[in-house]
Every structure is written in C-alpha cells, then in structure tokens.
Amino acid sequence: MFDLLKLRKRHGYQAIPDIRTASPVSTHTGFPVLDASKCKEDCIPCKDICPTGAIRVDPLAIDLGKCIFCGECERVCNGGAIKFSNEYKIGSTERESLIISSGTAFENFRQTAIESKREIHKLFGRSLKLRQVSAGGCNGCEMELAACSNVNFDMGRFGIDFVASPRHADGIVITGAISRNMAPALMDTYKSIGEPKIVIAAGACAISGGVFAESEELNRNIFDKIKIDLFIPGCPPHPLVFINSLLDFIGRK
Ligand code: SF4
Ligand code: SF4
Predict the structure, then answer these.
(1) Looking at domain 118-249, which of 1.50.10.20, 3.40.50.12280, 3.40.50.720, 3.30.70.1520 is its CATH number?
(2) Residue of the CA atom closest to atom 2 of ligand 2
(3) How far is the CA of 140 from the centre of ligand 2 (A)?
(4) Can you give the pLDDT at residue 9?
(5) 3-state DSSP call for residue 134?
C-alpha cells in the first residue's frame, strides 16, 4: 500500500495542466499562412503535387477539409507563398471556413470558425458522451482519438468521454472516408443515438474523403441526410486539435 502511494507520488500529475494554452511540438504542421503576392506567374507545382486536390491557385487557397498536412506544397513553393504555422486550433462549424485564402490571418479564422451556441453549451457544456465510428479509415485518426483520453491529454476532466454504445451517447464522431460496407453501420449508429445529438467529422477522410476521395468503394450519401456540426481537420487530427475544437464547440472556456 505505502509502496503504491510512493509510486503515485513519484509519478506526480502527468496531465497537461492547461490544454487551452498547450503547444504541440515546433514541427507540428498547423494553420497555413498564404501570400499570393509571392506566387510567380503560371507557377503551379504546389497544385500539382498536392495528393488530395486541396490547393487552388487562382486565387491561392488551401482547403483544410481536404489537406492531409503533408507539407509538400510548402516544400516545393520556392517563393514562400505557402507556409504552415504551428497554430493548431483549426476546428470549424462551417465547411466553407476551412477554405483558407491568401492573406487570411489565424486570428481572423478563429473569430468565425466555431460558432458556440448557447443551447449546445446548455446541453453538453458539462458532459458530452461520444460514440466513435471508424468508417473505413487507416486507424491513424482512431489512435489519436484514443490518445485524447490518455493520462496526458485527459479529455475526461472536461466531462468528455467516448462510450461503447450509441444508446449512451450524445453524439457521433466519424473517422474514415466511409466505405460502402461501413455506410449502413454508420447510419444505424447515428439512428441509435437519441435526440438531440451532434455529428463530428474528424480527419480529412471523414470531412472530404481525403486521399480516398476518388475511390469507387466509398459511399458518402449519408451526408445528404445528416448535417455535420463540427469539422476537425487533420490527417490525423492531433489530440490538442480535437480537444480544443470540442471545448470551443461546447462553449467551455
Ligand atoms: S500540405 Fe495539404 S495542401 Fe499542401 S500538398 Fe499536402 S495535402 Fe496538399
Ligand atoms: S484522415 Fe488520415 S489518419 Fe485519418 S483515417 Fe484518413 S488517412 Fe488515416
């Protein structure tokens, strides 16, 4: 017993003390800073190299819903028109807000990206249970979502947990590009969650199909019937991205 207590004391408090101000590693690829004035005439290597078609060059813009944050466009852009910052609070309640155009400052993006509604805060601000469905992903997103509940990120301290049954959930977190085989199971899970419920798309695959967008094996018709309430970009999203996006969404300071 005393040995256990000593061990516990030695481990100390391991959770990140303030998840709202924590920084990812300096190499983390976050919000893109675009400056079209540095683009050379007829220069399109960034568009050509992008594996997901996330880049538009005329005018210059990057769609964070498609971007897998590989950094290749920054590498091939000799003029410095594309730079990725370390800013990671890139969740959004609007799909259109994820299309970042030249000159958009991170602060301006943040002001409009997540609309925190009073009724969402009232319903889920102190407790939010989520059912996660991997609908044809590579397991990268799922691993990062599992990390959200580990001792370091400790998402449970905010009352946010993943639960095993949709019957116990307030919302669904979708990862993966939604394969044909997973589409019915995803819809069944969605229907099994009681109202009111929220829908979160985590990762480029769930938001846009990501690198699998052109595959004939996908069935994304579910989004004709259900609306996504929160988009969390990344490939996969870092736990800090996921947790901070959720906290903003449910209106937690
Ligand atoms: S970082 Fe994003 S926009 Fe740039 S090449 Fe990779 S996927 Fe495309
Ligand atoms: S978004 Fe990236 S990490 Fe997530 S399932 Fe798709 S390929 Fe894997």
Answers:
(1) 3.40.50.12280
(2) 235
(3) 5
(4) 86
(5) strand
Residues 95/65, Cβ–Cβ less than 8 Å: yes
What is the C-alpha to C-alpha distance for residues 160 and 119, in angstroms, rounded to an integer? 17
- The Å distance, Cα 234 to ligand 2 centre, comes to 8
Quote the pLDDT of residue 61. Answer: 96
Average pLDDT, the chain: 94
In the chain, where are the structural domains located? 32-113, 118-249
Domain made up of 32-113: CATH architecture: 2-Layer Sandwich (3.30)
Q: Compute the distance from residue 32 Cα to the ligand 1 centre, in Å.
A: 10
Residue given tokens 């005329």 in the structure block: 58
Query: Which one of the ligands is nearest to 234 CA?
Result: 2
Atom 5, ligand 2: residue with shortest CA distance:
137
> Whole-angstrom Cα distance, residue 204 to residue 64?
8
Looking at the predicted structure, is the pLDDT value of residue 74 above 90?
A: yes
Note the pLDDT tens digit of each residue in 173-182.
999 999 999 9
Please determine, for residue 234, whether its predicted confidence score (pLDDT) is greater than 80: yes
pLDDT(196) > 80: yes
